[in-house]
Amino acid sequence: MGAVPQLDNEQRRAALAKAVAVRKERAEVRQALKQGRLSLRKVLDSDSEAVGKMPVRLLLEALPGIG
């Protein structure tokens, strides 16, 4: 493994903003799945990088009757 990258304050803020946006998008997807407003097929067909890297366990736990 490589060394931890040294980030300046601007890079740190940008990374934090991106992480917050990813968490928000994933939470919205989980909520939509749980409420039945979104199907698992649509989630799997999504082009979103945030959703594409979402742990399978989180998706399954959001499905009605499973999670």
Defining key terms:
single chain; 4 helices; 67 residues; mainly alpha
How would you describe what is shown here?
By secondary structure, this protein is mainly alpha-helical. The chain has one domain (10-62). Helices cover 64% and strands 0% of the residues. The protein is built from 4 helices and no strands. α1 (9-35) runs parallel beside α4. The protein starts with 8 loop residues before the first helix and ends in a 5-residue tail after the last helix. The mean pLDDT is 93.
Question: Helix count?
Answer: 4
Order of helices and strands: HHHH
What general outline do the C-alpha atoms trace? Answer: elongated
Radius of gyration: 15 Å
Round the mean pLDDT to the nearest integer and report it.
93
Which class best fits the helix and strand makeup? mainly alpha
Tell me which oligomeric state these chains represent.
single chain
Q: Would you identify the regions where 5 or more consecutive residues have pLDDT less than 50?
A: none
Beta strand count: 0
Query: How would a crystallographer describe the biggest sheet?
Result: none
Assign a percent range to the helix content. Answer: 55-70%
Kindly, what is the distance between the CA atoms of the first and last residues, rounded to a whole number of angstroms? 35 Å
* Proportion of residues in β-strands: under 5%
- Give the total of domains: 1
Could you outline the blueprint of secondary structure elements for this entry?
Elements: H1 9-35, H2 40-44, H3 49-52, H4 56-62
